[in-house]
Amino acid sequence: QHSKAMIDEFGAPPGWAEGQPFDAEHIKHFLRQTVSQNEKLLAEMDSESAVPRSPLAWGSTGITWKNISYKTTDSKGTEKVILDNCWGNVAPGSLVALMGPSGCG
Prior knowledge:
Blueprint: H1 2-10, H2 24-44, E1 63-73, E2 79-90
């Protein structure tokens, strides 16, 4: 399913024959194409631009996460909770930014 969407979007990679699985070089081809298309998209945008569907959004794949928690210990030995029972859903073709406070990495 994703293979067909990638070929429809970017064309078949060099050296690929229909029915053949993608190898590392084929995947690199698609990654180079998506990076190039996203760079062009970003170069054309300004603060007034609408955000179109990203070339990275192939097919109808979304992602959902539930009950994600993460904690760590800082340099002073104090336990810090970074994520506490977080959940989310990203619909296919959506542009999403996950952000935290300044300096969080």
